[in-house]
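The passage that follows is intended for readers who have already worked through the single-chain material. We present the inputs for a multi-component assembly, then the predicted structure in tokenized form, and finally a short commentary. You are encouraged to pause after the input and sketch how you expect the pieces to fit together before reading on.
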Amino acid sequence: MLEADNLACLKGDRLLFRGLALRLAAGELLRIAGPNGVGKTSLLRLVSGLALAEAGEVRWKGTAIGRDREAFHRDLLYVGHAPALNDMLTPLENLQFTIAAAGDEADAESCMQALVRIGLANQLDLPARVLSQGQRRRVGLARLFLSARRPLWVLDEPFTALDVGAVEDLAGTLSDHCTAGGMVMLTTHQDAPFAMPPKVLDVGAFAC
Amino acid sequence: MLSTFFAVLRRDLLLAWRGRADVMVTLAFFVIVVCLFPFGVGAEPNLLRAIAPGVLWVAALLACLLSLHRLFAQDYADGTLEQLLLSSEPAVLWVLAKILAFWLTTGLPVVVVAPGLGLLLDLEQGALPVLVLSLALGTPILALLGAVGAALTLGVRGGGMLLALLILPLFVPVLIFGAGAVEAEASGTGALAHLLLLGGGLAGALALAPIACAASLRISTE
Amino acid sequence: MASGSIDQDNRMNPSPRGPSVLRFAAPQNFYPLAGRLAPWFAVTAAVLTLIGLWLAFFVAPVDATQGNVYRVIFIHVPAAWMSMFIYLVMAFWSAVGLVMNTRLSFVMSQALAPTGAMFCFVALWTGALWGRPTWGAYWVWDARLTSQLLLLFLYFGFIALTRAIEDPRRGDRAGAIIALVGAVNVPVIYFSVKWWNTLHQGASVSLTKAPSMASTMLMGMLVLAFASWAYTLAVTLWRVRPMILERERHTEWVGAVLDREGGRK
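Having made your guess, compare it with the prediction:
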């Protein structure tokens, strides 16, 4: 279970929000809402441990995430704004590297299947620099198919630049993950066809 | 346990291979800087022989400095660094892998071509093995210390010059012992003490720099 | 539940509960304290400087070998001491800040840096002035002077890094790391430069071992060293105050302070 109490986030010299609390239990899908610039991405970075909270703390299974970083990161999958793609590598090489870098086993076969499933069958051997925005996005998201073992998924705008079919497929994957007892926390500007309506946390309510 | 280490090492070496022009540029820079000195101070063999150790070492140091900004910049820009920081393996490991890959692609070539340049400067042939050894021990220290500076200056305006200002004073001991070793060997006093000190410095840098570098990367991506 | 409740009393800087000394680690308590203490240190510095200079120029005897030139030692040595000591203090505050995550520590180390660099520069400058009559050159690559020069570069690096990073929190922590890296390297640099110097230079006139150090000379030097101390404290405390306000400007107490001080003008 993921919990946060009394979170405050400082960006530059501006306090984005304060007093934010959230709770995410197994099987829940949480959508972070709020206008642009209110701190949705900052909140996701706080929760994933990339950024330090100005006040308050984030707990995973009851322990503060900074206390046992490696254990928390073993359970976490974070896909941020930047697709973490190197232009000189192929999608397959990129995906394999991302998985291995996270500390997981990744054989080429299952990585290939994941890329085919997300619709990149024809781009497997191309360098990433020739891919379109949507295709780059998909390479990052292909990780989801291989990360079912990681219970907590934190996704920053996963639906951006995806076409309708891909959005549907992704929403299905997220719903499945929740049904299997996982947790998903995401930001999005568009409505996605989730199996059940997500809980919503409006960061704007805590804005300063 | 070491899967991240080897994944990063393999990827960085692969990237260096695909972008090998960059590696060649560093090497060409090293050669050109060394070749400039005779034009500046005159081609008098005795003079060149006297300044050869210092010139070779300063050129190696500058070559390392100029390529350092490449170490994390790309990963920082495309988000790979974030993913690495979220790895379930300790950051020190993959930081070490990145530094090792960096040294293999910039330090090692310099070590390899240095003896040839030593001959250009009329360095005594007996001192060439010591030159190679001192560079082989010293350039990894430069890479380790430089990595901390590169991590701290990520995405900062004027990062390149700032990196030089931060790191060059720290390079001075390496320069002293590295060039000193070659000079001591050439003048017949024996380079063992210098080389031992370089080795000790390398051990210390290996133990401390990756920790500082990992902490710096966390600070810079925050 | 995905809904949060706003903690009505969510103060950003709660005073640490504990021994009363720790109370001053909270910025809102340290800010007025710094303002109260700074003038006292400034006065102490001025008085001690006058006493020290009087001892240096009127009481201390003329040196048998160097004549009156040696009197530069009264400025040179305290400045050199201070420049090294301030770097250590900076590193100490940086370590405290990184370990305890106290923002005031970072502010302290950044407020100290310009003063340290200034003393470093003064030590170099007076060293050069002293070197001209004693060595016959403004600059020789003496081990102490060279280490001092490198220390000045370390100061410049620290100041440049903390100024170049726009996000104050990142700047604080990045500066702390480089201060610590520098502090670890200072002994290495000093040792290596000394080694290099003995190989290249042979023995040189040592700056601090002035022949026949009279007790009045020592006295003058100590008094000036204490004066430098008081000066450093005063200047640092003054420099810390606006830095605290800038960093804490989103808090209520800073709003109150600004209202009060703005109203006075």
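Commentary: The longest strand of chain A covers residues 14-24. The helical segments of chain A are 40-48, 69-74, 91-102, 108-117, 133-141, 143-146, 164-179. How closely did your sketch match?
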